[in-house]
Amino acid sequence: MIKLRNVEKNYRRGAEEVRALRGVDLDIAAGEFAAVIGPSGAGKTTLLHILGCLDLPSRGEMHFDGVRVDKMRESELVTLRRSKIGFIFQQFYLIPGLSVVDNIALPLLFSKTRVERGRIEELARMVGLEQRLRHVPAQLSGGEMQRTAIARALVNDPEVILADEPTGNLDSANSEKIFDILHKLHENGLTVLMITHNPELAGRTDRTIQIRDGVIST
Q1: What is the full DSSP assignment across 17-33?
Q2: Which of 19, 42, 81, 212 suits 126 as a labelling partner, its CA being 20 to 30 A distant?
Q3: Is residue 197 a contact partner of residue 165, using CB atoms and an 8 Å limit?
Q4: How many angstroms separate the first and last alpha carbons of the chain?
Q5: Cα 167–chain centre separation
Q6: How many domains are there within the chain?
Q7: pLDDT tens digit string along 69-126?
């Protein structure tokens, strides 16, 4: 589904060039549930941004569903992200003044996709928020905010879920709830890639991808 070939990503920090990814070759198969682990600064988030078409490689090739994307225009990348990829982040990124339902629906403002209100409420129920539909983020626990973010990632019916430390700000009980939701999404046919510092959670996925100093091993 997603293929990286000899991918490198370099950044400039003042006079210094940082090599965040170094000659990465990686295949993510359709329907796979994979975890990326590694120490801080290893290149995990950079890898996720490349896989999610939020950033492009400095060198190398990337293919998504057989189509080369590293040469796409930004407008084409935006269309790909909106239609194929759902993102979940450690910091939730909910809009404080919007209810759970309206936060879930937010991506639809930037999409031509029409989704009935009942479908949005169904997503909220799927992640266990049926009693929180009208609540704003300040009235939610950390786990409830992350579940809202998961439902938001699903509203455009993506093929791939990319989760960057989705349990990083949560206690062990809420971490289990979030992992269980991701596992169910995988069982329902979605491709799920999760960055985590939790080796126990990583070990319960189909595959663990280890990265250190921008180099991966699987």
Answers
A1: EEEEEEEEEEEE-TT-E
A2: 81
A3: yes
A4: 17
A5: 12
A6: 1
A7: 999 999 999 999 999 999 999 899 999 999 999 999 988 877 766 667 788 899 999 9
Laid out side by side, the sheet with 191-195 consists of: 85-89, 160-164, 191-195, 33-37, 207-212, 215-217
Q: Which domain holds residue 46?
A: 2-217
Q: pLDDT at position 76, please?
A: 95
CB 7 within 8 A of CB 61: yes
Q: Which residue has the tokens 């939701």?
A: 181
The length of the chain, given as a count of residues? 218
* DSSP-based three-state secondary structure for 127: coil
28 contacts 51 by C-beta, under 8 angstroms:
yes
How far is residue 186 from each of residues 9, 12, 201, measured CA to CA in Å?
29, 37, 14
**Which residues have C-beta within 8 Å of that of residue 132, sequence separation ≥ 6?**
100, 124, 139, 140, 144
Spatial distance between the Cα atoms of 73 and 77, rounded to a whole number of angstroms: 6
In this structure, the number of other CB atoms found within 10 A of the CB of residue 5 comes to: 16
| 55-66 tens-digit pLDDT | 999 999 999 999
The CATH number given to whatever domain includes residue 66 is 3.40.50.300
Alpha helix segments (H runs only) across 62-137: 74-84, 100-105, 117-126
Contact 153, 79 (CB under 8 A): no
Token pair for residue 163? 């989760």
Q: Stretch 144-168: mean pLDDT, rounded?
A: 95
